[in-house]
Amino acid sequence: MSTEPRINERIRVPEVRLVGPNGEQVGIVSIHDALKLAQEADLDLVEVAATARPPVCKLMDYGKFKYESAMKAREARKNQAHTIIKEIKLRPKIDPHDYETKKGHVVRFLKAGDKVKVTIMFRGREQSRPELGFRLLQRLADDVQELGFVESHAKQDGRNMIMVIGPHKKKAEAKAEKAAAKAQRGGEEPSLPEE
């Protein structure tokens, strides 16, 4: 078995600009010397800038690099907040109790940091009275204005009238508040009845 470093047949350049494992500049060296240095240090020779003249290569543990970049990407995805649009459907002639229930759902969604799409469905002769739906949407927007703002004003869309309400606080803030409240509740020990 020879101690000669193996040269990849795809490498067609005589020399490369070499960067050390700690980011220090080694300089321009021949490809044979770069491969020899990589083998001695038990590291991989990775081409990081192929279009540069001469190409830039770095000595690194490629498996460790791939693992760390995958972990960073995973952490970034975990901290990412997805904005979800929840939908509530109403009718123009809604009962007061049903209205309060639907308003409670809108409040819950806004507190969680989600957007809410409010749809009023018109049927039959109700279509000739769109002002009823408009008033209902305005009333709902006024009732929840401390939690959210009207992102898209009421507009007629065929048989429906649609309005979008966005939350004042972002999804990440709502998650953090919820976690803090849960931790506070968990910290308090339930009191036992005295005998």
UniProtKB/TrEMBL annotation:
Database matches in InterPro entries: T_IF-3_C_sf, T_IF-3_N_sf, Translation_initiation_fac_3, Translation_initiation_fac_3_C, Translation_initiation_fac_3_N
Disordered as annotated region, ranges: 169-195
Protein name in the entry: Translation initiation factor IF-3
Encoding gene (name): infC
Homology family: Belongs to the IF-3 family.
GO molecular-function terms, A-Z: translation initiation factor activity
Quaternary data: Monomer.
HAMAP family for the chain: IF_3
The protein's role, per its UniProt record: IF-3 binds to the 30S ribosomal subunit and shifts the equilibrium between 70S ribosomes and their 50S and 30S subunits in favor of the free subunits, thus enhancing the availability of 30S subunits on which protein synthesis initiation begins.
Organism, as annotated: Nonomuraea insulae
Chief localisation class: cytoplasm
Translation initiation factor 3 N-terminal domain segment(s): 7-76
Keywords: Cytoplasm, Initiation factor, Protein biosynthesis
Compositionally biased intervals (Basic and acidic residues): 173-188
Domain Translation initiation factor 3 C-terminal: 85-167
Keyword Cytoplasm: yes
Location(s) in or outside the cell: Cytoplasm
